[in-house]
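Is it possible to get an amino acid sequence alongside its tokenized fold?
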Amino acid sequence: MQRTTQVIGQSGAFLDALERASRAAALDRPVLVIGERGTGKELVAERLHRLSPRWDQPLVIMNCAALPESLIEAELFGHEAGAFTGATKARAGRFEEAHGGTLFLDELGTLSMAAQDRLLRAVEYGEVTRIGSSRPMRVDVRIVAATNEHLPDKVDAHEFRADLLDRLSFEVVTLPPLRARSGDIAVLADHFGRRMASEIGWERWPGFGPRALDQLLTHRWPGNVRELRNVVERAVYRWEGEGPVDGIEIDPFASPYRPQDGARRGASGGSTSAPAPAPSSFSPPAEVEDSPVAACDAGPSDFKSRVARFERELLARALAEHRFNQRATAEALGLSYDQLRHALRRHDLINANG
């Protein structure tokens, strides 16, 4: 329960990617790890290092997007004292730090063309030269790089060196997004839930209720495993009910009081926009000419009953049109998923396809 960097999954696509990485680990060759944000690229890079003959040497991690372009080369290759303004003493670069081990370059696609030129020489000849020095030094480093971009497209756009891509792509491991490993969602959610429950002192882990599981399994997870972890941990620490955790908030920014365009102008004396009203289950219909409502031709005649009858038939018809996919139905009706679920419960339609 203490380790936070476990590789968890049982879907075929995910296990195939892990197997490819594991086979490449033993070879002293560069590996490219491709995947969307939150798919676990750094975990796979660590796996490549730990399963390699270099496992007892340094694993040095550098995020290429975290530094301004002017500092990337100094960070990678080091610099001598006085090489540029602020360089008061000599400093070893990441290549020197990783000597004998593995250098993981995250967000590789953000490297400038100048940095790519120097990286190519380091990869080809095993030599780096500190900025401000004319003396190259030998380094023994295995490169593992990661990106969420399609590098061949960047080559076509003259934004990435083709020869560098050729050198780094001995093996390419492409990680599947979470939406392609739906069988892993419940496994990952249970793992993150148990860990959070232990962290906040729960005596036992009650699991998730059916409503929460349904939300977890039907969400598209654009942020992948990282987003799932945040959602699950937030749900566990907020839960105050008895029994299984059954309250999930996918989007923590969803609020009827979210700042609207122009709201910031109030601080400078301009107008401010009022908070948006809380969304209701259904928007009021536009004004139309008086005509009988087909759904209300029969049955109860009082206003509330006729509106309820119409609402129920509207929901049932929309569900059938979208093959009882509740998320698609909610989108077609202009509702949030939670609003639709509330309406379905009110009209006893929650299991309409059963």
Remarks:
- Strands lie at 31-34, 59-63, 102-106, 127-128, 137-138, 142-147, 171-174.
- Residues 276-299 have pLDDT under 50 and may be disordered.
- The radius of gyration is 28 Å.
